[in-house]
């Protein structure tokens, strides 16, 4: 590195890392605002495509931007997602991977971040710009287009995409990428391809490019006419309801939404991403809504005439594939993203959730939801609470997900973080977890991605240790997801980021077997015992021994009573603990609280059961809203 009076001669890689280290953000928190680095660090696996140049640059900034060594590139992306979720998208991580399969392994995690509107920066190796050594190791050649490669596959799953072909380009590309990452409406993954030769090329960069820069996340004020229309519609409601989505937390608008609901006695239901917007005991918390919801929330959703949806994409699991609501119900969608605010002919209020709620409140006057409507909602919630209490209780019945959830719920601290992902557990956690404190639940269901659980929890734990190191991160995972991606147990041990992991083994992909049976199909290739190519015991894997081999404390328990004692030991331990319990594949599911969900079923079949199931499934379609 050489320096002139107002320039620095740096390699492309050095410039990128030096610039990242000097980006700061104002963090809003309960104790006021403070400035921290935008990037809490990064996750990296080195290969020939990133170690000589980017690796050299990262080493020089290892104190400002700590690099966590990954075990799998996909899991690195999941960890980055878990990290930024914990920080409510105010801070993020970068991921670096080598050219070829190292980079392509990040595609799934980029898709997860894109679907969930989560910021992460991907710095990935690319083939040589000069093409002098072509074809190179791990290069995919397209005969008609030599510029086309694996990295182009990230275009559909990135909010910002660029390939640096000259060192000067980073002067424009990096600020644009960060602007996307910090934009509340457009945020998602930013991908930057780094050709291996260009990474080491030098350029005389302006010194001012590397000056300390402090950013703030923009708050979009809503249009006053849109607010006025929303107020008029809401004040006409006789059965109003609020859907609280994940965007409420990202806007740090929980207090405003709660106060608004209390001022007007409006029942609140939560999406999967919006779980933990209200604590379980709040009198206006009517429960989770939709396919993985509660009888209480879905009962009032069916009757509501005006629905204020705040910070939600209204995906199919929230809306029951748009069968959860009356055909006559009117929607008001408050969302910082225009695309999300306008769904299904909603009356749109495009703006920040906190500012929009406050703007609506200014004109609501003394409006109150009718007393009998609010009382009905609260009675529905009381009945649901009785069901959940019975569902999570353990006694003389088969082990279940719900029982394990009840054990952890009863023993954990209110600030412990709970992580689950695709499979049967999102529904079980969403329905049965009783929220103890705001913002403590992370159920990955935006992309419904199995394998997120342990990696996402590791990233969340890294973030948690920055602010709440004395609290735990608790993971619920099935045997199927565990087998897909478990190597960050090792990462958590290596980095001293303790997790408590509950592995609930039901002998295969039991929730998909349940769907298979519910659509009239025979059990096939989901449960291990129903897989013709398998010739061993469904519970042949010793998950506890496997976890111990990666350095974790681990034990197998026989029932929820033993799980209680094991969970207490895990809480007292200093390192990651894995607790394994077999659960029944058929009994103990939370069968209440589900709305209809659209699934493609065979219109014709040689099976009478499949044909009958198709007709039964389609019978509910008459309730499906047609976008109006």
Write out the CATH superfamily name of the largest domain.
Answer: Thiamin diphosphate (ThDP)-binding fold, Pyr/PP domains
Helix percent band: 25-40%
**Quantity of strands, as a count:** 24
Q: In CATH terms, what is the architecture of the largest domain?
A: 3-Layer(aba) Sandwich
Outline the biggest β-sheet.
6 strands, parallel
User: Unreliable runs, pLDDT <50, ≥5 residues?
Assistant: none
Structural class: alpha/beta
Strand order of the largest sheet: 6-5-7-8-10-9
Number of helices: 23
What does this structure look like?
- The chain has 628 residues and is of the alpha/beta class.
- The protein has three domains: 2-215, 3-Layer(aba) Sandwich (Rossmann fold), CATH 3.40.50; 224-383, Rossmann fold (3-Layer(aba) Sandwich), CATH 3.40.50.1220; 393-582, Rossmann fold (3-Layer(aba) Sandwich), CATH 3.40.50.
- It is built from 23 helices and 24 strands.
- Strands 6-5-7-8-10-9 form a six-stranded parallel beta sheet, with helices on both faces.
- A hairpin with a 2-residue loop joins strand 3 and strand 4.
- Helix 7 crosses helix 13 (353-362), helix 9 (254-264) runs parallel beside helix 13 (353-362) and helix 15 packs across helix 16.
- The radius of gyration is 25 Å and the shape is globular.
- The protein starts with a strand and ends in a 10-residue tail after the last helix.
